[in-house]
């Protein structure tokens, strides 16, 4: 194996790696940030793509977030890779909060108090997999309730990322131009000084 460890990790190290990653929790976020910033597209395209992914993550349609984010990115003229990266907003840590928030917002938007109504037995609903029984008590409020937070977070992510990506790309262009001028100067003066 190409990148195998010389000394295999013991069971204690594997167990501690489950609780606290060896490289820390910040490393994946740094990688994610750099992956977005290094996309070769316009600031609008990158920001719109990530915003589309974030907006799609608010919907209760797990398994279709990529497709939905691609559709939203297409409408917004966003980058498809950035849209796929933006769907990372919805993950096992954030889904319980997203689902709770969208369900409660949807119930209020439909004019029902969030805790009013009959008791919903989700296990029974999902065992029978009858969409008509699941739609009214669960999915309809979640779909309707996803609209306001999706629009708010999508707009916020777009605005922040647009300026971050624009600044990063401007700094990178200046750095590459300086490096190019230094190489050109070295190429011109190099042979003459020998």
UniProtKB/TrEMBL annotation:
What keywords are annotated for this sequence in UniProt? Membrane, Transmembrane, Transmembrane helix
Domain DUF2062 as annotated: residue spans: 27-173
The source's domain of life comes to Bacteria
TM segments?
A: 64-82, 142-165
Under InterPro entries, the record lists: DUF2062
Q: What is this protein called?
A: Uncharacterized protein (DUF2062 family)
Say which species the protein is native to.
Rhizobium halophytocola
């Amino acid at each position: 194996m190409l990148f195998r460890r010389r000394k295999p990790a013991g069971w204690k190290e594997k167990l501690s790696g489950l609780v606290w990653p060896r490289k820390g929790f910040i490393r994946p976020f740094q990688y994610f940030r750099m992956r977005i910033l290094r996309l070769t597209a316009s600031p609008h395209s990158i920001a719109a793509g990530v915003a589309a992914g974030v907006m799609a993550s608010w919907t209760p349609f797990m398994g279709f977030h990529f497709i939905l984010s691609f559709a939203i990115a297409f409408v917004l003229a966003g980058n498809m890779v950035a849209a796929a990266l933006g769907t990372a907003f919805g993950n096992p840590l954030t889904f319980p909060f997203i689902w709770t928030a969208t369900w409660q917002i949807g119930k209020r938007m439909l004019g029902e108090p969030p805790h009013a109504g009959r008791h919903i037995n989700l296990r029974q609903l999902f065992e029978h997999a009858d969409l008509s029984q699941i739609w009214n008590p669960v999915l309809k409020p979640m779909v309707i309730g996803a609209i306001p937070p999706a629009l708010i977070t999508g707009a916020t992510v777009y605005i922040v990322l647009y300026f971050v990506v624009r600044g990063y790309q401007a700094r990178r262009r200046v750095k590459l131009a300086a490096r190019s001028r230094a190489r050109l100067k070295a190429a011109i003066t190099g042979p003459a000084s020998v």
